[in-house]
Each structure stands twice: as C-alpha cells, then as structure tokens.
Amino acid sequence: MEAVRLIGVGRRALAQSQDAPDIMREAWQAQALAQAVGSRLAMLGPAELRGDALSLSEAGARGSGGSAGPVVGAGGIRAAQLTELGDMRGALLALGVLLGDVGIALVGVASESFEEGAYWQCMEAIDAADESRDRVLEILRRLPDRDDGRLSDRGRNRGRPPVPGSDSAA
C-alpha cells in the first residue's frame, strides 16, 4: 500500500480509538510506520537524506520496539503493508501530522491515567512520537525542491536572501 494512503488508515484508526489501550496500540502502529518509512527512504531516497532517514527509522524502532508493545490485533502490523513511498513530500507531511495527532492523543491518556506505570508508559510514548516527528520535520526541511529531477531556485536559495535583480527577488 502507498505510504500516504497507509498513513491515512492510521489517522482514521487513531481518531476512532475509544480507550487508552486502543490509543496506545495506534501510537505503537504509528511508530512502526515511521520506522518503515524511514527505512524505505534510507534505501531509496536522495543520498543527502539517507542519514536523516536512518535516524527516523531508528527513532520509530525505539517507539515501537521492545516487549512493551501492545497486542496488535487481527489487522496485524500496518507498516508491513507499506509497498511504496509514492509522493515523498506528501508521505512525510502526512506522517508528521499522524505523529502529532498521536502525541496529542497520548497526552489525553496520560492526563486521565490513575496508574503510575501507565502514566510513565504514556510519557515514554509521547517522547518517542515527538522524537520521530522531529526527525520527519528535519527531513522535510532538508528535502530538496525538485523540478524534473533538479533543485528549484527556491530550494537552492533556501535560507539566503534573494539577490537584487535576479528572478528570485520578485
């Protein structure tokens, strides 16, 4: 399944989550998806982003790994259905939104938690989602703007003021 579509499935599942275990399961699923997108981007993406993509994959693995992972359910691990990135920028934007939604949902779970262990598990999941989202935002910041396989003027001049008299000064 294409990344943007798969991320949309995750956002809908998170929005339909009714209780803390459902939200924790969806947070875990989102982290597994961040790991898969990062891995795919590290293998197939632009060479200048491979290190950042690997960092995203590692952050996702930390957020979805270990024995504290929830029981996934009948649908299995959603990230295993990832077959292509498709629109790389669109996939990263959608993943960033999903991870932000996960963080917000987890804050709600943590604030309603009466058990100390559950509270700290939520806090760790919030940190993991935030770290993964930071990695996504860094990749987006560094992602070159491409027009027919080359950088656009906007991408080349990012962070520098326009040169007076040039086309980018308009």
Structure, explained:
With 170 residues, this protein is mainly alpha-helical. Mean pLDDT is 83; it is low at 147-170. The radius of gyration is 18 Å and the shape is globular. It has a two-stranded antiparallel sheet. Helix content is 64%, strand content 2%.
Gist of the model:
This protein has about 170 residues and is mainly alpha-helical. It contains six helices and two strands. It has a two-stranded antiparallel sheet.
Neighbour order of strands in the largest sheet: 1-2
Question: Total helix count?
Answer: 6
- What's the number of extended β-strand segments? 2
**What structural class do the secondary elements suggest?**
mainly alpha
How are helices and strands ordered from N to C? HHHHHEEH
Low-confidence stretches: 147-170
| Rg | 18 Å
User: How far from one another are the termini?
Assistant: 41 Å
Spatial shape: globular
Key descriptive features of the protein:
6 helices, 64% helix, mainly alpha, single chain, 2 strands, globular, two-stranded antiparallel sheet, 170 residues, 2% strand
